[in-house]
Amino acid sequence: MQLSSETSSPPLNIATPRAGHDIALKAINVSKRYPTGVEALKNVSLEIGEGDFFGLLGPNGAGKSTLIHCSTGLARPTGGEIEIFGSDAVDHYEAAREAVGLAPQDINLDWFLTVAETLDFHGGYFGMRKKERKERVDELLEAFSLTDKRHERTRTLSGGMKRRVVLARALMHRPRLLILDEPTAGVDVELRLELWQYVQQVNTEGTTILLTTHYLEEAEQLCNKIAFINGGEIVAEGTSGQLASKFGVSSLEDAYLALVGRKELSRAHVGEDSP
Ligand code: ADP
Ligand code: MG
């Protein structure tokens, strides 16, 4: 069974149904100043509801990865608080980390492991029992069309296959919050569409998703809520439509251009003050 066969797709993630709507991620006045003096985050506050497909959109260097690293114990904020499903993600990040599946921007596979081992070891870190791990590995390999690659070492895979393994690994322990840091940067159109399909299915099944991207089209297609981040600050937030109307334009792209002061680049030619 493959994901592409719509009716028979196996579930990629089975989030435990819960009453009401929890807050998946809450950032309160988070700041991060690196030892180099760079202020990567300035008083960032953000709330992602359970079940949301949340897009964090901003140019390179805006602070997207830094916010993710601060939320997953990979970097320490210099101010503020972050909670994941109510657990402190900074000082007590173990519980928070358990709830999160992270597909980092830079592919960080162990090149000496096979595809199946990569998933299996990850499940082991999260305390999954052997039988459960085996079933989950089989299920994910099937869903991501990786079954015939299960015994191949990750270093021998194509770029697209590596991306799939990273995503499957992030889902291995059935996280309630899946964080995807620029999953499609530099990947070809085909793989991008395929990844979109995977993550949409995961979201439909109840998993909350935080996606960072600098592709407006991607955020527009996938996300029910979007925040613009620029220079370490959240500068606008809402649905794609709300953001457009906030900036008095008709598309997310034009809202973004208005935000960065480049309205003249609009493809819709709606800006009366365009040259
Ligand atoms: P994005 O993911 O939106 O492209 P980043 O969070 O990677 O942005 O970077 C935000 C800013 O912080 C940039 O100016 C970047 O150069 C800087 N930065 C990121 N990581 C580090 C680091 N480990 N040390 C010093 N500066 C960093
Ligand atoms: Mg980044």
Query: Could you list the spans in which at least 5 consecutive residues all have pLDDT below 50?
Result: 1-7
Class inferred from helices and paired strands:
alpha/beta
Number of strands: 10
Bound molecules: adenosine-5'-diphosphate, magnesium ion
Tell me what portion of residues adopts beta-strand conformation: 15-25%
Number of alpha- plus pi-helical segments? 9
**Order of strands, widest sheet:** 6-7-8-3-9-10
Our Rg estimate from Cα atoms comes to 19 Å
Looking at the structure, what is the overall shape? globular
Termini separation: 54 Å
CATH classification, class level of the largest domain: Alpha Beta
| CATH architecture title of the largest domain | 3-Layer(aba) Sandwich
- Percentage of residues in helical conformation: 25-40%
Compute the average pLDDT: 88
- Reading the helices and strands in chain order gives EEEHEEHEHHHEHEHEEHH
Task: Write down the CATH topology of the largest domain.
Answer: Rossmann fold
The CATH superfamily of the largest domain is known as P-loop containing nucleotide triphosphate hydrolases
Domain module tally: 2
Largest sheet: 6 strands, mixed
Strands, helices and their partners?
Layout: E1 23-33, E2 39-49, E3 53-57, H1 64-71, E4 79-84, E5 87-88, H2 93-99, E6 100-103, H3 115-125, H4 130-143, H5 159-171, E7 177-181, H6 189-204, E8 208-213, H7 216-222, E9 225-230, E10 233-238, H8 240-246, H9 252-259
Parallel strand pairs: 3-8, 3-9, 6-7, 7-8
Antiparallel strand pairs: 1-2, 1-4, 4-5, 9-10
The structure holds adenosine-5'-diphosphate and magnesium ion (MG).
